[in-house]
Known about the structure:
By secondary structure, this protein is of the alpha+beta class. It is built from eight helices and three strands; from the N terminus they run H-H-H-E-H-H-H-E-E-H-H. The protein has helices at about 1-5, 15-20, 25-45, 60-70, 80-90, 95-115, 155-165, 175-185; strands at about 50-55, 120-130, 135-145. It is globular.
Amino acid sequence: MWEKICNQDGAAEGVHLYVKSLRGSAAYWRSALNKLLTQIRCLGSPTYFVTFSSKDLNWLDQRKALLLADGRPDVDPNTLNIYETQQLIEKYPVILSRHFMIRVNTLMKYIKNDDEMFGWKVKDHWWRIEFQNRGSPHLHMVVWIEGHPEFNTEEGKFLLNRNCCCKMPMEEEDPELHELVKKCQIHRHTQTCTKNNTATISFVMEGEFVY
């Protein structure tokens, strides 16, 4: 890229034309925002906003990949504790990102080919990947569902309550899902919850959405 933006005297020219291809730059996100606004103008408001978080401290296959990168292929990933795993995550961010994208691409392939996940076929999507302070990636995404009924209809309300549930799964009915939600989907306060020496606590009641 440097060769493209340098003139004969070695000075940089037209940098703005190339910076937008650098992920994370302000120019890149302006371009991404313009793409999102174009999608909204063409497709209307997105149907759902979805967030996918990385369970990177517990994925054994990712631990194995991190151990390979660290030159310790013979170490059993089950023997690593949370702190050792976190150190590897911070040490090998590229391995972490590549592993996360493999899972994201697999998940997106499943979503696009399964019309029942949201109730109807996924027509289009837009996402943004961010990283927590400790290095863990997560994905924010908006999706447009083809033929999805309006949310002010009975069918739309039914799908909303089916797809967006805030109820704890019963351990007797689905112990695996109950444990996953208990372990990964319950908020625990950190320093970011008490910025400026104030704390705002939100409570979500179990059950259906109220209209």
